[in-house]
Amino acid sequence: PRGKGLPEHKVPGAVTIQCIEGEIELCAHGKSQTMQPGQLVYLAGGEPHSLHALQDASVLLTLLFPSQSQDAARS
Questions:
Q1: Which long-range contacts (CB under 8 A, 24 or more apart) does 18-22 make?
Q2: Phi, psi angle pair for 57, to nearest 5°
Q3: 15-58 pLDDT, tens per residue?
Q4: Spatial contact of 35 and 19, defined as CB atoms under 8 Å apart
Q5: What is the SS3 assignment for 7?
Q6: From edge to edge, which strands make up the β-sheet containing 24-28?
Q7: Distance (Å, rounded) from C-alpha 42 to C-alpha 38?
Q8: Burial grade of 50 (CB within 10 A; 0-12, 13-18, 19 or more)
Q9: 4, 16, 22, 73: most buried, per Cβ within 10 A?
């Protein structure tokens, strides 16, 4: 809903954020940007970010967590 959002946070895996409808403000990389329907942003894992709905909005958030087998291969 308009005026609601997610405070700054981060996740270990990569993230894609796609605005489906409405308008949101995304803060990441030390700057903010307004996202409108159809726009998509990719954030690397561990990147702090926050969202704020400027209008009633729908957002598709996809989290890409590394598998344990990939982590073990890096060790």
A1: 18/59, 18/60, 18/61, 18/62, 19/57, 19/58, 19/59, 20/57, 20/58, 20/59, 20/60, 21/56, 21/57, 21/58, 22/53, 22/54, 22/55, 22/56, 22/57, 22/58
A2: -145, 155
A3: 999 999 999 999 999 999 999 999 999 999 999 999 999 999 99
A4: yes
A5: strand
A6: 5-9, 49-53, 24-28, 31-35
A7: 13
A8: middle
A9: 22
Q: What pTM, to 2 d.p., does this model score?
A: 0.81
Q: At residue 68, what is the residue type? A: Q
Alpha-carbon torsion angle 2, 6, 49, 53, nearest 10: 0
Q: For every residue of 16-72, which 3-state class applies, written as one string?
A: EEEEEECCEEEEECCEEEEECCCCEEEECCCCCEEEEECCCCEEEEEEECCCHHHHH
